[in-house]
């Protein structure tokens, strides 16, 4: 198969890019690959909303920039923050034009929400199911766009580079070039090649590396692992964001989120003794940035020997609560919690990956012809901790910028429009593509024991949760690395000897992601933002990204 533009992922990042590119090039084919159903994405589960400066009377770009920089704890790229904040509202307007419906107040103005770390009300939302509404609007627009083809149930295994043609590719190879991807097409059960001159990775997060996560099953860090295997650059993976308030429901995975917007509307965190504890930790109390709130909860749980803390909403007006949070109200009721009478048990859960595939201001990766945006990318916006509701915004801004880079000759700071062929002058696409070998299944057999995969996944999630969670130490990180080494060896052996399956590939990818998180955490001899190591409790004066 060949595509003019190949997009991996059908969340907000992939679909935004696909729509823009398809509309600009009506005669070209845009192919979107997604590993399960097209709407099964992190995007669909977003609750709180999308941040953007909307109310010019009270809010300003400067305030949103400042809030983002404060949350990022010194590690944000100022230029990127400015780009996202200033271009964001225009991207949100485009989404509204696609038909996304954001809540309005009685006067007909957008009803703006507030979340941790925001100094103003600036979050557009659709009840407490904003992501579902955005995904619906985007997929609806895609359906109307004749030159976008979505191939669902198609698992991307690896990106193809000159390595697959027998060239030596190392971390220091200058012109690593993406030529397409190998996929396991679950519709045909065949491994196929999809070739393209332009590939965009929008593969989302990696929350499944942890035992407790708000992320759906698809969030297995596939894009990050693929780029790492292809010798591209990955950065800042140690900054895994734990959402402070996932519903505490033992044995249920993924965890149901209780959006931070509930605290934005006045929800109060209490420990097991009923004490409102956040004022002990930060003057912004329940609306401090997420790293601070998650650590405070972790501390209260450890001190009190409890498995959760509680969110108190009993003082809310019932009608108002149900109006803004109907999904949360129903979910709690379904497990016997009437939020007007009972406290909601909550605990932190792995939620978001701030680091990822290193990209520049036009979403270019270190691999030629390969762009990345959305949660899998590390743009420099989030630094050491993401400000709430900045993720959906970032995904749209960089999907647009990747499209700009493709369509504008010499965009201000971008590179060349088309990378030179790594195979020398005059070597055309057709000749290169013909030389790419088919996937080799020689010597592999059908997997006989699925338990080898499922048990290893559980082990990985335990290692990451027990040793590389909210609070880290040098010894825990060292122990995690040793355990990961063993899992890596066993899984590579399995990969070499059995036929590939999505489960095996996801396990392999999650082990790589685990390794990158631990490695990043080991390099960072300080505590900053989401990375807190009790052996190095202070901030280092040397500000730097950890690039692997
Ligand atoms: P996703 O939406 O996750 O899409 C990833 C896509 O890649 C999927 O289609 C998947 O099938 C595909 N894919 C992955 N690997 C492969 C592969 N190997 N082969 C083929 N396809 C593949 N952010 C906010 O800004 N505001 C919020 O209110 C908010 N709330 C959230 C609530 C929850 C419960 C969660 C989990 C996240 C929330 N976030 C929020 C974060 C935000 O939703 C995500 O960061 C964002 O949606 C990521 O979008 P994306 O397009 O990068 O990836
Ligand atoms: C939430 O609604 O609390 C999640 C928002 C986010 O992750 O940005």
Which properties best describe this structure?
548 residues, Flavocytochrome C3, Chain A, domain 1, 5-stranded parallel beta sheet, 18 strands, 35% helix, globular, binds succinic acid
Short synopsis of the structure:
The protein is an alpha/beta fold and 548 residues long.
Structural description of this entry:
The longest helix is centred in the C-terminal third of the chain and has 24 residues, at 474-497. Strand 2 (5-8), helix 1 (12-24) and strand 3 (30-33) form a beta-alpha-beta unit. With 548 residues, this protein is α/β, with parallel strands linked by helices. Helix 13 runs antiparallel to helix 14 and helix 14 (474-497) runs antiparallel to helix 15. It has a domain at 240-352: Succinate dehydrogenase/fumarate reductase flavoprotein, catalytic domain (Flavocytochrome C3, Chain A, domain 1, Alpha-Beta Complex), CATH 3.90.700. The strands form five sheets. A five-stranded parallel β-sheet has the order 6-3-2-10-17, with helices on one face. A four-stranded mixed β-sheet has the order 1-9-8-7. A four-stranded antiparallel β-sheet has the order 12-15-14-13, covered by helices on one side. 35% of the residues lie in helices and 14% in strands. The structure holds flavin-adenine dinucleotide (FAD) and succinic acid. Flavin-adenine dinucleotide (FAD) is lined by residues 8-14, 33-36, 41-43, 45-50, 130-131, 155-156, 202-205, 214-215, 218, 222, 257, 352, 374-375, 389-392, 395.
């Amino acid at each position: 198969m060949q595509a003019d533009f190949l997009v991996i992922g059908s969340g907000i990042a992939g679909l935004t890019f696909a729509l823009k590119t398809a509309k600009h090039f009506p005669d070209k084919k845009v192919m979107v690959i997604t590993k399960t159903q097209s709407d099964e994405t992190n995007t669909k589960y977003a609750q709180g909303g999308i941040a953007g400066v909307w109310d010019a009377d009270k809010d300003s770009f400067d305030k949103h920039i400042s809030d983002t920089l404060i949350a990022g704890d010194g590690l944000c790229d100022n230029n990127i923050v400015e780009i996202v904040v200033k271009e964001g509202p225009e991207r949100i307007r485009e989404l509204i034009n696609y038909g996304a419906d954001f809540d309005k107040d009685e006067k007909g103005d957008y009803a703006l929400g507030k979340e941790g770390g925001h100094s103003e009300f600036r979050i557009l939302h659709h009840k407490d199911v904003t992501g579902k509404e955005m995904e619906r609007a985007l997929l609806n627009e895609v359906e109307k766009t004749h030159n976008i083809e979505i191939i669902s149930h198609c698992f991307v295994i690896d990106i193809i580079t000159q390595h697959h043609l027998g060239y030596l590719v190392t971390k220091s190879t200058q012109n690593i070039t993406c030529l397409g991807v190998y996929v396991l097409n679950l519709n045909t059960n065949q491994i196929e090649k999809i070739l393209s001159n332009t590939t965009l990775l929008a593969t989302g997060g990696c929350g499944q590396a942890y035992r407790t996560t708000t992320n759906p099953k698809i969030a297995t860090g596939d894009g990050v692992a693929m780029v790492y295997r292809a010798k591209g650059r990955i950065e800042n993976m140690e900054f895994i964001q734990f959402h402070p308030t996932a519903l505490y429901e033992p044995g249920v995975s993924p965890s149901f989120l209780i959006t931070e917007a509930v605290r934005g509307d006045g929800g109060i965190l209490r420990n097991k003794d009923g004490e409102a504890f956040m004022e002990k930790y930060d003057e912004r109390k329940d609306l401090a940035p997420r790293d601070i709130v998650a650590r405070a909860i972790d501390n209260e749980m450890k001190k009190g020997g409890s498995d959760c803390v509680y969110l108190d909403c009993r003082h809310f007006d019932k009608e108002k609560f149900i109006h803004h949070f109907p999904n949360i109200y129903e979910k709690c009721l379904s497990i016997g919690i009437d939020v007007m009478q009972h406290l909601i048990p909550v605990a932190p859960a792995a939620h978001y990956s701030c680091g990822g595939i290193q990209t520049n201001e036009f979403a270019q990766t270190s691999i030629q012809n390969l762009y990345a945006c959305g949660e899998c990318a590390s743009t420099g916006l989030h630094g050491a901790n993401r400000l709430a509701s900045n993720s959906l915004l970032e995904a749209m801004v960089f999907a647009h910028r990747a499209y700009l880079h493709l369509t504008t000759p010499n965009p201000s700071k971008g590179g060349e429009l088309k990378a030179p062929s790594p195979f020398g002058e005059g070597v055309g696409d057709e000749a290169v593509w013909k030389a790419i070998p088919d996937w080799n299944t020689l010597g592999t057999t059908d997997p006989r024991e699925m338990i080898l995969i499922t048990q290893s996944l559980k082990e990985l999630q335990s290692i990451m949760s027990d040793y590389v969670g909210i609070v880290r130490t040098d010894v825990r990180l060292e122990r995690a690395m040793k355990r990961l080494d063993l899992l890596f060896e066993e899984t590579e052996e399995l990969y070499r000897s059995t036929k590939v399956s999505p489960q095996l590939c996801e396990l392999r990818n999650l082990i790589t992601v685990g390794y990158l998180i631990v490695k990043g955490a080991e390099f960072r001899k300080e505590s900053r933002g989401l990375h807190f190591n009790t052996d190095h409790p202070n901030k280092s004066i040397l500000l730097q990204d950890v690039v692997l």
